[in-house]
Design brief:
The structure holds 2 protein chains of 2 kinds.
Chain A: H1 4-35, E1 37-46, E2 49-50, E3 54-61, E4 65-67, E5 79-86, E6 92-98, E7 108-117, E8 120-124, E9 129-131, H2 136-149, E10 155-162, E11 165-173, E12 176-177
Antiparallel strand pairs in A: 1-3, 1-10, 2-3, 3-9, 4-8, 5-6, 5-7, 7-8, 10-11, 11-12
Chain B: H1 2-12, H2 18-30, H3 35-60, H4 68-92, H5 97-121, H6 130-146, H7 149-166, H8 174-196, H9 201-217, H10 229-244, H11 258-274, H12 277-286, H13 289-293, H14 296-315, H15 330-338, H16 344-366, H17 369-389, H18 394-423
Helix pairs in contact in B: 1-2, 3-5, 4-5, 5-6, 5-7, 6-7, 6-8, 7-8, 7-9, 8-9, 10-11, 10-14, 10-15, 11-16, 15-16, 16-17, 17-18
Classes of the chains: A alpha+beta, B mainly alpha.
Chain lengths: 181, 424
């Protein structure tokens, strides 16, 4: 068995890594929040739960397909890069998709191809969860779903986008956060 | 104390001397079985697991009133505390299993809780199971740093959960192999347990957890040649059986030797399923040697067969009867599988019957009542299944069942009589 000081050294390294990994998660996401651009994605929510991370509102987006000329380069579950821009109604729209990261813009998200139908690529975003306090999530889901049936209400997710990464900041209905519904 | 009473009686009857009595008493005083320590360890471990799970659930509640940076602080606090506890254990209590196992359990859960809470704060989605892989990867080194078996069990459970949830996704070929890669990283600790703590409860729990984990996770390998899972499972069970009969596990009590129990039950159940003709119709329809040979199902079959062959060559002397026993049953089964358009159901029935007879013959030779009944059970279930298969009169079925019942009684009666005679 290795002696105590070697074990302590290894322990310190692993303990450092254990702190570094979550710290790095925070650093990466904070960078996107601080330097990224805020886009509003129109949503339709439902409510499942995760045994480890808690209850969340599952988000699905209006803008989740993109028509291309030739779909033969796109396969299911393939990693793609989705360029985002602001539409006329101030909501996010997909400007372009690519198989490699965009060099001329910071406003793109790393996503996956859900499936391809004819020349339409269906996109799987990496940010479909909005975590909420466990008592509020089911209630929010019911209220939001009721509101979204009414055309005078608009539901959207505020998402920071920066060079492939994205952070969901909040989910709102007519400028009001669903946490306070 | 009863030992003192017994010793004074032995001394009074001049069976042992005073000096011998004192030596025996001193021996028992110093070699007292450490039941209290084991119990304390078990309760402490259960307590730590419960507190760890509570920590994850309380943090999963998602406290809306807290500010983002307060939440981050809350996420890191248990991790820092458990790291401190682990550091203290290594520094001051490195010889006390109670401290090592408890701090390992706290560390494991606080790391998981920390990462889960960060994911919650930033709404990070874990679509590919990387949360569990990172959790296990950052925990596995602690198995060796602390020599902690609780940590190794938790890591096996963590990666098994990952593989069961994400392994069935056939679009990612490498995912199943990640599970095996992580298992390989835990293997040295398991080998240490087999070598150094062969009769410890924690080793027995490892046998069961690993066997069940491999048993379930093998199903996730189903991909391009799912029908070859039968072949793969037979290879896995043959490997398990040879492992259970190897010198590594010969001192393990039979109830704790999960490899022996699972392999025999697995081979028996697989053969019974494959003794039905319609199962083979499905296999024959899809069977294609070319695609099967290049499938990951076949690759794992080869690996398990290799392990089984290695263990057999190392620990057994070849006998032709082993080809029809659990030791080498994979070989005739593979032949039937390969020639699957040549009455496979008939040959599986024959193989099962021969296996039943082999087990009975072996049980008589070894005078094992349990094996005898297992052999009889194999043959009886096989016959029972054939009766549901064919249209035969109720009278004949009834008579055959009656004969089977009488057969059980008679063979057991003679076996018990033989035991009693040998005992006299």
């Amino acid at each position: 068995m290795p002696n105590k000081s070697i074990l302590l050294m290894i322990f310190l390294w692993v303990a450092f890594l254990q702190l570094l990994v979550p710290a790095n998660m925070i650093f990466q996401k904070n960078k996107t929040v601080v330097t990224g651009t805020l886009f509003k994605f129109k949503v339709k929510p439902v409510d499942p739960a995760d045994p480890f991370m808690g209850r969340y509102v599952d988000l699905s987006f209006d803008q989740d397909t993109f028509v291309i000329k030739d779909s033969k380069f796109y396969a299911d579950q393939q990693t793609i890069y989705v360029e985002i821009a602001q539409g006329i109604d101030s909501f996010a729209i997909i400007k372009n998709i690519s198989l490699s990261p965009f060099k001329d813009t910071e406003h793109f998200i790393t996503a996956k191809v859900a499936y391809v139908q004819e020349n339409r690529v269906h996109i799987e975003y990496p940010f479909t969860r909005f975590y909420m306090e466990e008592s509020k999530a089911p209630e929010a889901e019911t209220k939001v779903n009721l509101m979204l049936r009414d055309s005078t209400y608009e539901g959207y997710a505020e998402v920071f986008v920066y060079k492939g990464d994205a952070v969901v900041q909040d989910v709102k209905i007519n400028n009001r956060t669903i946490k306070s519904l | 104390m009863s030992i003192q009473k017994d010793l004074s009686e032995l001394v009074a009857n001049r069976l042992i001397s005073d000096e011998q009595a004192q030596n025996i008493e001193a021996y028992y005083r110093t070699h007292k079985p450490s039941n209290t320590n084991t119990l304390t360890l078990i309760f402490a471990a259960i307590g730590a697991v419960l507190i760890g799970l509570a920590m994850i659930l309380i943090l999963a509640h998602n406290w809306d009133n807290m500010l983002r940076y307060t939440k981050i602080g809350v996420a890191f606090l248990p991790l820092l505390l458990s790291q401190g506890l682990t550091g203290f254990t290594l520094w001051r209590k490195s010889d006390v299993p109670l401290w090592k196992e408890t701090s390992a359990i706290f560390l494991f859960f606080s790391l998981g809780a920390c990462m889960a809470l960060i994911a919650q704060i930033y709404n990070i989605q874990d679509s590919g199971g990387s949360f569990f892989l990172t959790w296990a990867a950052l925990s596995i080194p602690m198995i060796y740093v602390l020599r902690s078996s609780a940590m190794s069990l938790l890591c096996i459970l963590c990666i098994s959960y990952y593989n069961m949830v994400y392994g069935f996704d056939s679009s990612d070929n490498y995912k199943d192999f990640i599970y095996y890669l992580y298992l390989a990283a835990i293997l040295p600790h398991y080998l240490y347990l087999i070598k150094e703590k062969v009769n410890s409860n924690i080793t027995f729990i490892h046998h069961w957890v690993l066997t069940i984990s491999l048993l379930i996770c093998t199903a996730t390998l189903a991909n391009t040649a799912a029908y070859a899972l039968f072949l793969l499972y037979m290879a896995l069970f043959t490997f398990f059986y040879n492992l259970s009969k190897s010198s590594y596990l010969e001192k393990t009590p039979s109830w704790a030797n999960a490899y022996g129990i699972i392999s025999q039950a697995g081979i028996f159940i697989s053969l019974i399923i494959l003794s039905f003709d319609n199962v083979w119709e499905g296999i024959s329809k899809e069977y294609n040697t070319d695609t099967m040979v290049f499938s990951r199902e076949f690759l794992m079959t080869l690996i398990y067969t290799g392990f089984a062959a290695f263990l057999y060559i190392k620990h057994q002397v070849f006998k032709a009867e082993h080809l029809f026993d659990f030791f080498l049953i994979w070989a005739p089964f593979a032949l039937i599988f390969y020639l699957n358009d040549l009455y496979p159901a008939f040959f599986v029935n024959l193989l099962t019957l021969i296996l039943g007879v082999t087990v009975i013959v072996r049980s008589i030779r070894q005078e094992s009542l349990a094996s005898l009944n297992f052999g009889l059970l194999i043959i009886s279930i096989l016959i029972l299944c054939r009766f549901f298969d064919t249209e035969m009169s109720y009278l004949i079925r009834g008579l055959v069942f009656a004969f089977l019942g009488i057969g059980f009684f008679v063979t057991n009666y003679f076996m018990i009589r033989k035991f009693n005679k040998d005992a006299q």
